[in-house]
C-alpha cells in the first residue's frame, strides 16, 4: 500500500479504536469522540503541547495533504489537480484501493463528478471529498469482510 493508502487505513483504525470502546461498536458516542479529539487531534486543534508528538491520525491527515501538493504542484495551478495530475495520483498512490485507471472515459467521468465548481480542475476540497468517498468505501469493504 502507498503512504496515502496507509494514511486512509490509519484514519479508519483510529475511528474503530474509539468507537469500539463502549456501546455500538460502529459509532462514536460523545465521550468516545471527546477522547478521540483530546488524544488524537490535540496538535491540530490547538491544545498544543510542544512535548506532544503528532498522533497517527494527525500524521495521516498531514500525509494526505502532502500527497495532494506533490501532484497539484507539478503543472499549472499549484493548488489544483488537473486531470492528468489526478490520474497520476490515483495510479501511483491509490492503485491498491482502486486499481489503475487506464481509459480516458473513466477519467473524464470521475473528474466530472468531483469537479463541483466546474473549473475542470480538482481543488483540495474536491480532492478530500474524493478521499472521503474512497475511505468510506474501503471501510465498508473491510467491515463486510470482518463480519464473514
Ligand atoms: Ca474544481
Automatic annotation (TrEMBL):
Principal cellular location given in the protein's record: cytoplasm
Species in which this protein is naturally found: Acipenser ruthenus (Sterlet sturgeon)
One example of a Gene Ontology biological process annotation: positive regulation of canonical NF-kappaB signal transduction
Residues forming coiled coils: none
A single Gene Ontology CC term: cytoplasm
Keywords linked to the UniProt accession: Acetylation, Calcium, Cytoplasm, Metal-binding, Nucleus, Repeat, Secreted, Zinc
Residues covered by the S100/CaBP-9k-type calcium binding subdomain domain: 4-46, 57-99
Taxonomic lineage from the root: Eukaryota, Metazoa, Chordata, Craniata, Vertebrata
Name recorded for this polypeptide: Protein S100-B
Matches recorded under Pfam families: S_100
